[in-house]
Amino acid sequence: MSSPKLITALAIGISLFSIKNHHSTLQRINSSTLQLFNSSTGGGDSASKSLLHYDLEKHIKNIKQLTFDGDNAEAYWSFDSKKLIFQATNPKWSASCDQIFYYDITKGQSMDAIPPKLISTGMGRTTCSYFLPGDSTILYASTHLGSKECPMPPEHRKDGKYVWAVYPDFDIFVAGLDGKIIKQLTNSPGYDAEATVSPKKDKIVFTSSRSGDMELYTMNIDGSNVKQITHDLGYDGGAFFSPDGTKLVFRASRPKTDADIKEYKELLAQNLVMPTAMELYTCNVDGSDMKQITHLGGANWSPFFTPDGKKIIFSSNYKSNGAYPFNLYIINCDGTGLEQVTSDNVFDAFPVFSPDGTKIVFSSHRLNTQRHGINLFLADWEN
Question: Cβ neighbours of residue 114 under 8 Å, at least 6 residues apart?
Fold first, then answer.
């Protein structure tokens, strides 16, 4: 959900992709990574076919690739489980940086042949779209009021550390499926993005820097009654509601040492964050009963509750010592029962269940033998 919303592989020494904070745009995989990827899979068409589904991936069945070019991520379902809204960078779709697109899965048309409908303005950079109750409107964050141009990504740092930009021009808007902006929900100085909607259809959760730190807030569907939910130092983002609308799950950094705190504050003053150390947390919608769920190390992010609300699915690189691959895992809400879901060699993230609980959509580098590109995949879910 921060901008992710396109992804990135967080790595030490190797920058694979660039995640949009819950939401950000993917950068190219470097040539050495591609060589390693191809050598491990054998390369070529036959290897590509074998990468669609791995034998150990027992929870996902009947996988279908939805996009075939560009960088595509953060796909979210309509309440009726028939439509998807997502962000993409794809010059063929006139999207030189992340823009919001709409896709009706019931029509079965290939986005490779027929481009999806552009919903955002085509200006600035967007992230974190989500359907609103009724499925005729969506919300998303955009920088277009600050500038019609795509904002510049962070420059490569001399110290080699990987950072995300949290652009202060991001605000949250409501638009119809015709692309017309209906309302601006936020208008505070600083970053407002990463908004998602409660299944109860009554609240929105989002990340904002309005307090001077990156905290979670809730507001009513109409933008009223804004309340701060988190208060600890660190980047709180990528939050989602539980199926019953009573809890939140999110990922957060928690700098503890004097050096880490100093670095975090210095980066934030430059509208930057370093997302290489993140763990998962849950809390009640009002911020009470705060619990840390993972203690894995590395980057644990893009969490989402399972349809029964008893577990959390998320992406992590904890097995690879902070580099790649990123794979999907599920864990009980009390932090027990960790189980690996996907077995890709490079990158799986942004898992989201359909409201009816039968399907899952996620972003992955599987099947991709090119130097760049993250695509959307749809699968049936089995417990």
Answer: none
d(CA 97, CA 305): 29
Q: 265 in helix, strand or coil?
A: helix
The set of residues, in sequence order, having a beta carbon less than 8 Å from that of 141 and lying 6+ positions away, is 3, 23, 126, 127, 128, 170, 171, 172, 173, 192, 193, 194, 195
Residue 109 CA neighbour count, 13 Å, CB half: 11
Q: Return the residue matching tokens 């489980």.
A: 81
DSSP of 347-369: BEEEEEE-TTSSEEEEEE-TT--
Place of tokens 């894995």: 296
The pLDDT tens digits for 142-195 are 999 999 999 999 988 888 889 999 999 999 999 999 999 999 999 999 999 999
CB 278 within 8 A of CB 292: no
Contact 189, 225 (CB under 8 A): no
Q: What are the DSSP calls for 305-361, one per residue?
A: E-TTSSEEEEEE-GGGTTSS-BEEEEEETTS---EE----SSBEEEEEE-TTSSEEE
Query: pTM to 2 decimals?
Result: 0.89
Compute the radius of gyration of the chain from its Cα atoms. 19
Q: Is 237 helix (H, G, I), strand (E, B) or coil?
A: strand
Q: Which domains does the chain have, with CATH numbers?
A: 31-381 (2.120.10.30)
Summarize pLDDT for 122-143 with one digit per residue, the tens. 999 999 999 999 999 999 999 9
Could you tell me which residues are beta bridge partners of residue 77? 84
How is residue 107 annotated by DSSP? Answer: G
Distance between CA atoms of residues 353 and 61, nearest Å: 14
User: How far apart are the C-alpha atoms of 58 and 53, rounded to whole Å?
Assistant: 10
Preceding peptide of 303 cis, ω within 30°: no
The span from the CA of 60 to the CA of 58, in Å, is 6
Alpha-carbon gap, residue 246 to 373, rounded angstroms: 36
SS3 299: strand
